[in-house]
């Protein structure tokens, strides 16, 4: 807490009094008819707009969601226990806005943009509407630049491009958030600003995430928007939109940003709660009719926009730069059921999904990515050349391995070719394992994939594959640092790099132990 | 969707009554008749009759019309009978209220309430009325109230629109600005 002396306090108060505008203006007013579970019915307010902020006594705000002939239904954003029947409610003439800008980076805020990290007020210069319409077709540019997540299995098999929306889906407790956190950590120094939206999570979990990001120096490029499990449903519903608006600030100014929605299932639950309390008719799984629109309008705002759009938006200040907002929404399934309502919706909205499986997680394959069901519909065009070249075999090897592994359980003796394929598959599976909070650079990945592709792993014991990889990477970093730098910078793949890698790996195998 | 409120039930009746009255050029008469009927409907004794499940609809309507006596003309009696048949006599106060609202709308007139800390001089009131007439672009009828807790200034209420120029309101805004 900052130290304040009494004169400062009176200065602040003086400033506030000076800034206060007490001019009386005509305002639309209504009376609260009922207050229940965060929903307020208001009589009057004839001129209210849909989604407009409504002011209650005591500085509490609400948002109008139901406009009926005689009354208005609104959700309260904040503490509704102090509201009573008969109190007045006023229109504000504004729709909901949150502070945006570079000042937000490194901070933890709630769904309305108020700081909750105890680091004092945020001096944001701008605010922007929470609900906005996504850029249209004319403003868009194809996705062709990669986002490096730093996870071998993702960057090799389901590459993500800037502006893409890649769903992370799976049961509880199998590392969905871990993937997203690793991806955020890996953006350090890469010019991508990250927004992490925590919806309906325990406060302790959110605190843990913040601590881990701080430990890895990732808070310097990250905004955290948190709506915890104990916050009102309206906040949980709003948090993703608020986070998206903060991310769009960077997209619209020709920069790159990435946003993680952790998770959208909880947002859908919160919206279901609000809708049922507003007495909207329930549909499948008791969700309201517009639950698809709830997610589609949010995810559609993640996009890559072209230079013209950026130039127009910044009125010529930023020229020749495209902007992007990459989204990593997370959906939690129940018992691996991807055919439930919300998972199918979000799968169909996004440009691919990373499918995590409990059985894989329990058998020690972490990240527990199911290579067969995970896809990236646009990322291929954005993949780094060298990873594309070297990682192409991984998917195939794993797919063949899975088929053979199931088949070989019934066969006692296998021919040489099958046995070899099985063994290769085992090694690739092993190689795809990666520890949490240890993202890899492009060059690191390239070396690992090169070793697997060229068969250098074939004579390594399966249990020792990860040890081999670690020793190999250490060796390459100390002996061939210039080659690694070259790969990291260019990302290309040519004979020179190929020969360099070949010489390095062969020398390692000849001289080192693992 | 909110549950069907009495005003939802009353709306078609009020509309029908209003259109009939306008057609007959009898808006004032109907306004008077409906307010009388509304007062009768809220009377405790009449209410007891209307709520009594043992009595038939004809009996209830008959009693109601007897209570109203000469205050209603033939068409208004028919209107009450129709309401009675649909078991909507309890909605009469809402019908009267909605009728008045439509009448005010038709006459381009707004009910304005002036709440002031001290009794207004007629000159001040006249000044306010002229300004409001211009602002709202309507004919206005003013009701004044005195509320000393305002400390100073006035609050103007015209329907849902409220102009709060009171000292109390300003102080409340100041305290909110300082506390936020």
SSE arrangement:
The complex is a heterodimer of chains A (514) and B (180).
Chain A (H helix, E strand, L loop, with lengths): L5 H14 L6 E11 L2 E6 L7 E5 L3 E8 L3 E7 L10 E8 L1 E4 L7 E2 L16 E4 L16 E2 L4 H6 L2 E2 L5 E4 L5 H10 L6 E10 L1 H13 L6 E7 L4 H20 L3 E7 L1 H14 L13 H9 L4 E2 L1 H7 L9 E10 L8 H9 L2 E4 L2 H5 L12 E2 L8 H24 L7 H16 L10 H12 L11 H15 L1 H10 L4 H17 L3
Parallel strand pairs in A: 8-14, 12-17, 12-18, 13-14, 13-15, 15-17
Antiparallel strand pairs in A: 1-2, 1-6, 2-5, 3-4, 3-6, 4-5, 7-9, 10-11, 16-17, 18-19
Chain B lengths: L5 H18 L3 H16 L1 H8 L5 H12 L5 H12 L6 H15 L2 E8 L5 H15 L2 E8 L7 E5 L2 E4 L2 H13 L1
Keywords (chain B): ATP synthesis, Cell membrane, CF(1), Hydrogen ion transport, Ion transport, Membrane, Transport
GO cellular component, one term (chain B): proton-transporting ATP synthase complex
Subcellular location (chain B): Cell membrane; Membrane
Oligomer: heterodimer
Shape descriptor of chain B reads elongated
Largest interface (C-beta under 8 Å) = A-B, 29 and 25 residues
Instruction: Provide the succession of SSEs of chain B.
Output: HHHHHHEHEEEH
Beta strands of chain A, count: 19
Going across the biggest sheet of chain B, name each strand in turn.
2-1-3-4
**Spatial separation of the terminal alpha carbons of chain A:** 51 Å
Shape of chain A: elongated
* Major β-sheet annotation of chain B: 4 strands, mixed
**Using only CA atoms, what is the Rg of chain A?**
26 Å
Helix content of chain B: 55-70%
Mean pLDDT of chain B: 87
Query: Approximately what portion of the residues of chain A adopt beta-strand conformation?
Result: 15-25%
- Poorly predicted tracts of residues of chain A: none
